[in-house]
Design brief:
The complex is a heterotrimer of chains A (about 270), B (about 250) and C (about 300).
Chain A: E1 2-12, E2 15-25, E3 30-34, H1 41-48, E4 56-61, E5 64-65, H2 72-78, E6 79-82, H3 95-105, H4 110-123, H5 139-151, E7 157-161, H6 169-184, E8 188-193, H7 196-199, E9 204-209, E10 212-217, H8 219-225, H9 237-244, H10 249-265
Parallel strand pairs in A: 3-8, 3-9, 6-7, 7-8
Antiparallel strand pairs in A: 1-2, 1-4, 4-5, 9-10
Helix pairs in contact in A: 3-4, 3-5, 4-5, 5-6, 9-10
Chain B: H1 24-40, H2 44-60, H3 65-71, H4 76-88, H5 92-115, H6 119-134, H7 140-170, H8 181-210, H9 229-251
Helix pairs in contact in B: 1-5, 1-9, 2-5, 2-9, 4-5, 6-7, 7-8
Chain C: H1 2-15, E1 17-26, E2 29-39, E3 44-48, H2 55-63, E4 70-75, E5 78-79, E6 94-97, H3 110-121, H4 125-135, H5 155-167, E7 173-177, H6 185-199, E8 209-214, H7 217-220, E9 226-231, E10 234-240, H8 241-247, H9 249-254, H10 261-273, H11 284-296, H12 300-306
Parallel strand pairs in C: 3-8, 3-9, 6-7, 7-8
Antiparallel strand pairs in C: 1-2, 1-4, 4-5, 9-10
Helix pairs in contact in C: 3-4, 3-5, 10-11
Classes of the chains: A alpha/beta (about 270), B mainly alpha (about 250), C alpha/beta (about 300).
Chain lengths: ~270, ~250, ~300
């Protein structure tokens, strides 16, 4: 379980980025963290595995303080982070080396590495790119390699920090599908996003606005009750239709169901 | 810019060549020895012999010569500057050409070295060669990772330069046709380049930390370096050729 | 010199930009194949296509950033200017906003960044001041920011600054390469509205000309007069937004662009009701109105069948 307890964070004193954040996420959930540009959601992601340290309060993963230096490798192995920019997270110049990098850090025996690399590449469907260099990959493919590099470390949790926001629609759908299949494998998924259609695939929504946690609950409840526009967000089309056609609620419900399934089957 | 159009120092190219299969330590030591020999060269005949040696090495890498030569282009301003310096304040054109030649003799083998060696292996090679220093508390592993990252960043930085130059050009900047203008432009680009590089470095630090990189101690190693038969043969050949170059330099004083 | 450029600009505004059979090759492979198109002055044209379709190349070509190509590129019926070696020269009166504009800020203060293009053009200091004062409110930046370093701005401010420093030169054609990428929905709409206001600004002789690159058609459909659809290096369509979305949406599907949800709803409604719908335009509001009307007529049979 990941627990945020009265967390406060700022980069410059007096300019609070996150304030009084309290929530907990159980192992196995699929959670979306949403909010407009500058709402503090990326900072939240970096607090989850101790890349940033809370100024006040505590962040604990299975009762271990994530910023405790004694447990750093342990925490980083358990909770992986995928970043927004596919360009700036490649450390080496070759796909296999990239995946191996994390494995070497968590002291995986050399004999076991090849197997883990192959497995991770297979899960993300990039087996034929094992020897490619980052120059040869598209943004979406780079993100898949970043995911493989995290998967090979066998984490229980993966945080996607706006990992889809720089991708074109087709790659975005692929990445969302990948998140779902990882979730089915028992990995807890926390995705940070401002694409509302991505929220539809999750089980729970956290809404951040100006550093405060405004909402924590189910997606349908979230879409029903909140004035999304005022948080820099936009209701998904199905919901806008639903409001326009509320006298034909059934159609909208059916449309929403179809849209979601069409979208997922793409 | 298409990365396959030119070969920049630091870029690795996957090929099946006799240079690619060598242990990085063999290549590193060979490279170092060759550098020392180039430094000691005194005569034209020595330079010609060394050039011949470089030419053979480049051929062995199975990478077209044109790629290497186009890769030299970004270095052109620096080379021109040294030439200019020697013309104005040095010992004239002859000395300038000699320096220019020497730079070529150093840069070309360097790009052959990095083009045929995976950065991670290179780092590992450097790390094992420097291992004795870790007894003196020199952070050898961190140094090795630094090299991997530096190599990884070279093409990115070149792209950034290209991007900033395009942005300036698109907003009406025209370089003037004189010798100083490339330098002035370079200085103007330097500040935004530094900023974008720091931003990238920041991001990369997070990515490295997020993948459990610790103090670098006690990491396991995926590919163990092995000094094999070809390496012994290559070392022998390198030492032999370098002795010949040196001998030519001593015996034919032109 | 400066004056003559301005005169040319007005001449060109009347005639437009034409490509005839233009192909571009890189490393022996085509990145654009036999493109024929005319950009009409005063129109907002959106360029749509998947990643790798050739959108950025086409935009760079128009700006004169691609030195060599085959075919003809006419600006106001004149071929694009070339240097002695026959390489195309940058077209100064076209404004170009690159992808992730905030990464291309290169000056040390906001004011210097804004004035760069004007200084390069040789405008006088007082002129520059006037133009900056004039532009700032339109792009939502305050005057206090002028002496500051661009580094201190927020992400959204940086992006608006980068775009403003191109707008300020009053380009005859403004090209933007995915300027809304990674923005949240509200910021995206704000930026699009800002650009539309600028394009249709009162007091100018006619509307300004914009070429807007995007991979999401729903973002730009409502703003566009015409849409260019690029697919695998070829131009697949050059139509009004209404024609493309309502009559030829199969072209979008063919080139791997997901249909806007409003159009998907239209198709689904047609399927469920068995009727062909003719909304007034492809705007979301018009499509919804049409769908609403259809469902007001009781379609009991169809309804029971489908639920």
């Amino acid at each position: 379980m990941l627990v945020f307890d009265h967390v406060q964070f700022y980069y410059r004193r007096g300019q609070s980025v996150l304030n009084e954040i309290n929530f907990s996420i159980e192992q196995g959930e699929f959670v979306s963290v949403v909010g407009g540009n500058g709402s503090g959601k990326s900072t939240l992601a970096k607090l989850m595995n101790g890349l940033l340290v809370a100024k006040q309060g505590s962040v604990k993963l299975d009762s271990i303080e994530v910023s405790d230096p004694a447990y750093t490798p342990h925490i980083r192995q358990k909770i992986g982070l995928i970043f927004q920019n596919p360009e700036d997270q490649f450390i080496t110049t070759n796909v296999t080396d990239e995946i191996v990098f994390g494995l070497e850090n968590i002291r995986v025996p050399a004999e076991e590495m090849q197997e883990r690399v192959d497995q991770a590449l297979q899960v993300v469907g990039m087996t034929s790119f094992a020897q490619a260099s980052p120059h040869e990959l598209s943004g979406g493919q780079k993100q898949k390699i970043a995911i493989a590099a995290i998967l090979a470390m066998r984490p229980k949790w993966i945080v996607f920090d706006e990992a889809t926001s720089m991708l074109d629609p087709a790659s975005r759908f692929e990445l969302i599908q990948l998140m779902q299949s990882l979730h089915q494998r028992g990995i807890t998924i926390i995705q940070i996003t401002h694409h509302m259609d991505e929220v539809l695939v999750s089980e729970r929504v956290l809404l951040l606005d100006q550093g405060c946690l405004i909402f924590d609950g189910r997606p349908d409840h979230f879409f029903k009750t909140l004035p999304l526009e005022s948080y820099g967000l936009e209701a998904p089309f199905a919901l806008r239709i639903h409001k326009r056609l509320d006298w034909r609620g059934e159609l909208a419900a059916d449309w929403k169901g179809r849209a979601a399934s069409q979208w997922l089957n793409r | 810019m298409n990365p396959s159009d030119r070969l920049i120092v630091g870029q690795f190219l996957e090929r099946k060549s006799s240079l690619h299969i060598l242990d990085p330590r063999t290549k590193l030591i060979g490279f170092l020895l060759f550098m020392i020999v180039v430094m000691l060269l005194d005569t034209k005949s020595g330079y010609i012999a060394a050039t011949l040696f470089v030419f053979i090495v480049l051929q062995l890498s199975r990478i077209p010569l044109t790629l290497y030569i186009r890769g030299l282009m970004p270095l052109l301003p620096v080379v021109l500057l040294t030439l200019l310096y020697h013309l104005l304040w040095g010992q004239g054109i002859g000395e300038g050409i000699r320096i220019f030649w020497r730079i070529l003799l150093m840069v070309l083998p360097a790009s052959a070295l990095t083009a045929t060696t995976r950065p991670l292996q290179m780092a590992q090679g450097i790390e094992t060669l420097l291992k004795p220093l870790s007894k003196l508390r020199v952070p050898v592993e961190q140094f090795a990772l630094m090299i991997v990252i530096a190599i990884r960043f070279i093409p990115t930085i070149l792209e950034d330069i290209q991007r900033i130059r395009l942005a300036r050009k698109a907003r009406g900047f025209q370089s003037k046709r004189n010798l100083l203008s490339p330098m002035i432009e370079f200085i103007q680009i330097l500040v935004p380049l530094l900023i974008s590089t720091v931003r990238r470095a920041d991001q990369l630090t997070l990515a490295i930390e997020a993948r459990a990189y610790g103090d670098g101690r006690g990491r396991t190693v995926f590919r163990r370096l092995l000094f094999k038969k070809p390496d012994a043969l290559a070392t022998l050949l390198i030492v032999l050729s370098l002795s010949i170059i040196f001998a030519i330099d001593m015996l034919f004083p032109y | 010199m400066v004056k003559s450029i301005k005169k040319e600009t007005t001449a060109e505004t009347r005639v437009g930009w034409e490509l005839h059979d233009v192909s571009v090759q890189r490393s022996g492979r085509d990145v654009l194949q036999r493109i024929n198109l005319t950009l009409t002055p005063g129109a907002w044209t959106s360029l749509i296509g998947k990643t790798g379709a050739g959108k950025s190349t086409l935009a760079s070509l128009l700006k004169g950033l691609i030195p060599r190509f085959t075919g003809q590129y006419l600006i106001g019926s004149q071929p694009i200017a070339t240097d002695r070696k026959g390489k195309s020269l940058v077209v100064p009166e076209i404004g170009f906003v690159f992808q992730y504009p905030e990464h291309q800020i290169f000056e040390t203060t906001v004011e210097r960044e804004l004035s760069f293009a004007l200084r390069m053009r040789g405008d006088s200091m007082s002129d520059i001041q006037k133009q900056i004062q004039n532009l700032l409110p339109k792009v939502g930046l305050s005057e206090d920011l002028l002496p500051q370093s661009p580094l201190l701005l927020s992400g959204g401010q940086k992006r608006r600054l980068a775009i403003a420093s191109v707008l300020i030169a009053n380009p005859s054609l403004l090209i933007l390469d995915e300027p809304t990428a990674a923005l949240d929905p509200v910021s995206r709409r704000q930026l699009l509205d800002l650009l539309q206001d600028w394009q249709q600004e009162k007091g100018t002789e006619q509307k300004r000309t914009v070429l807007f690159i995007s991979h999401r058609i729903e973002d730009v459909a409502e703003y566009s007069d015409r849409i260019l659809l690029l697919h695998e290096r070829k131009l697949l369509a050059h139509q009004t937004a209404n024609e493309l979305l309502l009559d030829h949406s199969e072209l979008l599907i063919q080139s791997g662009i997901p249909l806007p949800e409003s159009i998907q709803l239209l198709r689904l409604t047609e399927q469920l009701s068995g009727m062909t719908l003719h909304p007034a335009s492809c705007r979301e509001a018009d499509v919804l109105r049409e769908v609403e009307q259809i469902w007001q007529i009781p379609q009991e049979g169809a309804k029971h069948e489908s639920f």
